[in-house]
Fold:
Amino acid sequence: MSNDNLLYLLFLLLLTHLILFPTNSAYACEPRVPSTPQKGFDSSSVVFSGKVLDVKRLHTDISDINAVVFDVDRYWKSTNGHYYRELVVLTAVDDGACGYRFEAGKEYLVYGWSYSYDEGLYFVSLGSRTAPIDDAHEDLAFLGDGIIPTEHLNIEDQIARVPLEIKPLLQKQSPKEEVNMLIASMGIGMAVASAAMVLFIMKNREGRERKGRINRINYA
Structure:
């Protein structure tokens, strides 16, 4: 992806954030949760309920993430066609980056999205209708009976699929996917901060190049 296209994308991201979230907290998460169970279902790649067995912190080259291990008891959606009893989902480590704070031993209804480079790898954020199972009565009534999982997939194998070097993946994504990946991995606040930094650096470089061209013309 060219520097001009990247600059344009980052500028749009920064501008959108400033328009939609004109606050003094540049690093705050501002989730937009789907207003109905139907909208939450339609916008998700996976919908399931289950108990959290463990929360493992992983270190990537961009930021830390939590790998949340679930014992799934029921599915309502799985875009990759598999219904595993054991499932690992990813989320940011804190709610400031839109991470969902799962607790071991508790049961949840989970709405997640898949990554473009691996449809079997899901992430969850505060911008979904994910909730403790006791607080999800409206969604459960809408979803109905669901599917009981019968397949098994080793937990360690799932965690091993999580890429710890994310930057190279960003270079392979389409412009839309790059922005989505950036937001998902770092949170809107960090993405905006990065956008501002890149804009500043590139503008300074353009200024120096322009000044150099003017000096060369004058000397000529």
In short: The chain has a mean pLDDT of 77.
